[in-house]
Design a protein that fits this description.
HAD-SF_hydro_IA; Rossmann fold; 6-stranded parallel sheet; single chain; alpha/beta; HAD_sf; 5-stranded parallel sheet; HAD-IIA family hydrolase; hydrolase activity; 3 domains
Amino acid sequence: MTAGAGLVGCDVAPADRFDLALVDLDGVAYRGHEPIDGAAEGLTSARTRGMRLVFVTNNASREPESVADQLSDLGIPAQAGEVMTAAQAAAQLLRTRLPHGAKVLVVGGAGLVTAVRQAGYVVVDSADDEPDAVAQGFAPDVGWMQLSEAAYAVERGAWYVASNLDLSIPTARGIAPGNGSLVGAVRNATGVTPDSAGKPSPTMYRMAVERAGARETLVIGDRLDTDLAGARVGGFVGLHVLTGVSTERDDVLARPDERPHLIAADLRGLLVPHPEPTAGADGWWSCRDASARVSDGRLELGRGGGDDVEARLDRVRAACAAAWAYVDDGGELDASAVPDLTVRGD
C-alpha cells in the first residue's frame, strides 16, 4: 500500500494489514464519557486478529491510568502503557531546551502536571515564581486566573509550550472549546504563539511507534486538521472515522495535507476491506457501484449504488476522488455544490 495524495485501497481488512494502530480517543473511541457505537466491537475484534493498539490523544488533562480505566469501563480493555497523551509529548518537548530542575508554570489538568514532574521539572502556579517555561493543556476548570498567570509569565520571557492547539473537542453534549481556544486567550494577550507538541505534529505518533515497535502503522482519527494531518506529515496511512468533528463533506473539501487515505463510518471499518476509487471516462470516478465527477467546478453524483452504510461510504469515496483530482489539476471546486453526504444514520 502506497500512501499517496489520494485515497488508497486496502484489499484486506486493515486489522489484517497493519500490525499497529494509533487510535485517537475523543470522537473515535468515546465521546466525552459516552461510548461510540462500534468502537468496542471494532477494536476488540482488531486485537483478536493481531493488531496492537496505542491510544494517542491530544487531551492532556488526564493521566494515562485514568484514560485506560475509562476505556476498560467502555468495553475496550487497555493498560496505561498503551496510552500516549499530549501531556507526555509536551514534557518531551520541554526536555529539548530546559535543564533538569527548571521551573515550569503548568496550566491544565493532572495529566500535564504529572507528566511535567516526571520529566524532572519543578511545577509552579504563579508568574511571580519566575518560571522558565509555561506548559498549557486543556482542563475543564481552566479559567481566567490561570490564563492570566500564563500570560504574565510569557510576557516576561518564559518559553510557551502548548500540549495541542485543537480549537474544539467533541463531548456527549456537542462540540465544546478545546485547548487551542484557551491558548488563543494567552496568545491574544501576549502576541506569542506557543510551540506545540500535539497533533498535527507527528511527535506523538513517532513516540508511540518507537515505544511499541511496528512493521506497518495505521493512524485513526476523527479530525482532519490534527489526526489526519499528522498522519500525512508523519508518512503514515490515515483512517478517518466519521464519529467526531470532521464530516464527510469535510473529506471532499479537504486540503491535500489533511486528506485521509481511508474512510470508515466507525471503528468497525477496521474489520472490512476498503475499495479504491478508479478513474473512468469523462471525468467520472467510480467506487464499486457509486460514481462522481466534477464539471465546471460543481460536484455531480452518479445514480448508482444502494442506501446502506457501505454504499453511502462508496459515494463519499468516489466524491473525494473526483474532487481531489479536479483540485490537484488546478480546478477550483464550488464548495456550495458539495452536499452533506451523510453516512451514519445517527
